[in-house]
Amino acid sequence: MGANGRTSNKPTIVLIHGLWLTPRSWEGWIDRYQKAGYNVIAPSWPGLEGEVEAVRKNPSPLKGLKLKTVVDHYDRIIRKLDAQPILMGHSFGGLIVQMLVDRGLGSAGVVVDSAQSAAVPVLPLSTVWATITVLGNPFTFNAAVGLSPEKFNYAFTNELDAVESKKVYDRYQIPGSGRILWDAALSLLNPNASSKVNYANNNRAPLLFIAGSNDHLVPPSINKANVRKYIKNSSAVTDYREFPNRTHHTVGQKGWEEVADFAIQWATEHARDQVTLADVKSAFPPTTTQSGTRSTEIRT
Fold first, then answer.
1. pTM for the whole thing?
2. How far apart are CA 61 and CA 177, in angstroms?
3. 3-class secondary structure, 106
């Protein structure tokens, strides 16, 4: 792939990972999209350019890391591309995508299990329990804080037993920035917090929220409240899709291909000045959905 992020006439896709993870969490999506002919880049957060094992040994770049620093980092990367890319983010990566789209970047944005932007005052009990080891200790404010295997199993991989969850933990989990998590918690009632966006922005790119019905860390109620903020204030396209039985591990959970295919098909259909939906559908085999399952969709 060239330095400008383009090797074909299909749009570039920028994948943004979340807290406690690295770009490795997108490995399946990267491979699938590249095989379908897309240019894919998945930059790490600033200071996390090494592999998972290296970050675990030296998590110092995460100490005191601010959300704005991370968003500005991706802003610079995207502005160097030849054309506006499709932006996709998971968890806090979803929040980063929301903020980048609000800045006028991206031809379309897809946020998967996204952390909420400022002034979305929803805090389910499962979210509190998933983050209590960080937010329950004020000394973690500027620290790099990891999750225990047990807490990771509850927050991310609650579809797996402890043994299978530990395999996922060992491959993907790194310490997270306590500062970013604390800032998010303190933004619930503050519209001017670091995670603020202009909900009334009519000129931003279309935005899709994808939620999982069994997500403990970011339950659907958070994403639905976030969507309502946009729909109430803006005429820009805001869609919502909820997949049944998906957890916060949805980007790697068994059956992730269905989510990945829906994400790129929606993004290409709604993207500004990009290829046609027919081109996208021809690149992927038909996805078989288990009988008896339904997904929830809200569209402006």
1. 0.89
2. 9
3. coil
